[in-house]
Amino acid sequence: MGIADSTVDLIGNTPLVRLNHLPQAAGVKAQVVVKLEYMNPGGSAKDRIAERIIDAAEREGKLKPGGAIIEPTSGNTGVGLALVAQQRGYRTIFVVQDKVSQSKRDVLRAYGAEIVVAPTDVPAHDPRSYYSVADRLTERIPGAFQPNQYDNPNGPASHYATTGPEIWAATEGKVTHFVAGIGTGGTISGTGRYLKDVSDGKVTVVGADPDGSIYSAASPADQHQYDVEGVGKEKYPGAFDRAVPDEIVRVRDAAAFETTRRLASEEGLLVGGSSGMAVAAALDYAREHDLGEDDLVVVLAPDSGRSYLEKIFNDDWMRGHGYGDVVERTSRPSLVA
Ligand code: PMP
Questions:
Q1: Which atom of ligand 1 is nearest to the CA of 149?
Q2: What ligand 1 atom has the least distance to the C-alpha of 303?
Q3: Are the C-beta atoms of 114 and 70 separated by less than 8 Å?
Q4: Which of 262, 254, 257, 252 has its CA nearest to residue 232?
Q5: Is 185 close to ligand 1, i.e. is its CB under 6 Å away?
């Protein structure tokens, strides 16, 4: 592959790796492979949407030299945007809620972003909320552009153009199922739509959703708080195409976290909680539908477990949040008492 001209040129073309332990232990006969989005330069699938959103904004004249990118985000999208923006000479300002950890703010600052902190305990329409603050900054700062990842069609379009074709090529068209968590819905809508188009509808698309989120809730009474980050929603975003998933599997936090920890300890894959949730959904689906050896299930793992060391991989945090039984099942005995 030689020498890339810029870190932005390293976005995409992430590897697929086969799971050799978890499916077998779950009695799943299908082949289950994971697409490792933490291999992107900013460490997540969000680098893809950042590049395409910025490209489109430049083309449409919404971003001009010296312009600023303003978004209410604390996580992967911020990193992706900051990375692409600094390479193109734009200022980035992220509005984050005060509950966002110092380490997440530090990562964004390390990439050169400016951080504005807004209170967590106010509703979205309150003028102090991080959404309202971001909107005001976008109005007031000359040359400001707000990507709005939840409604920006370039999110799903980036996955249609890159993630989908990469999976089709890497599996030589043998992929039968695609499984992904749903946050903005961009990943599943773009990738899933591409795989359906290219396979004449033969690829089955399965969404993974936290127990409590709207995508898998039968009624509003089924919506409640959950701990897994980056996925699930309380209202439908524009980036999500509800026609794409054939089925949506509901995953409880405990199952998502247990699978996340086992991916690290048994498969050597240090991935985040939404990745564990997607793998848990894939294994449930494969078992339920009795998928066989010829079925090739591709699961998208959005980011790295490094961002969750203080939570999912910390036994005290897990016990404190009611996941003591998960800790007992997934911890190896220590030699030092
Ligand atoms: N996992 C993590 C960790 C994320 O940050 C996101 C994006 N919010 C997702 C999964 C879901 O991806 P998408 O927004 O494309 O549905």
A1: 14
A2: 3
A3: no
A4: 252
A5: yes
Distance 66 CA to ligand 1 centre (A): 29
CA 325 to chain centre: 26
Ligand 1, residue 159: give the atom nearest the CA: 15
Position 337 scores a pLDDT of 58
d(Cα 85, Cα 67) in Å, to the nearest integer?
10
Yes or no: say if 277 and 259 are a contact pair by the CB < 8 Å rule. yes
Compute the distance from residue 185 Cα to the ligand 1 centre, in Å.
Answer: 8
**Per-10-residue mean pLDDT, the chain, length 337:** 93 98 98 98 98 98 96 92 96 91 90 94 90 96 96 97 98 98 97 98 98 93 91 91 98 98 98 98 98 98 95 97 96 73
- Give me the pLDDT at residue 99, please: 81
The residues near 205 (Cβ < 8 Å, ≥ 6 apart) are 177, 178, 179, 188, 192, 195, 196, 244, 245, 246
Distance of CA 180 from the midpoint of ligand 1 (Å): 9
Residue type, 113: A
Asked if 130 and 99 count as a contact pair (C-beta separation under 8 A), the reply is no
| Separation between Cα atoms, residue 327 and residue 151, nearest integer Å | 38
Region at 64 (left for phi over 0; alpha for psi -120 to 50; beta for the rest)? beta
Bridge-based pairing of strands 31-36 and 16-18 is antiparallel
pLDDT score, position 249: 98
Going by CA atoms, what residue is nearest to atom 3 of ligand 1?
Answer: 230
Query: Is residue 329 within 8 Å of residue 66, measured between CB atoms?
Result: no
42 lines ligand 1 (CB under 6 A): no
**Residue ranges of E strands in the chain:** 16-18, 31-36, 68-71, 91-97, 114-118, 144-145, 177-181, 204-210, 247-251, 296-301
Return all residues near 214 (Cβ < 8 A) that are at least 6 apart. 223, 232, 233, 234, 235, 236
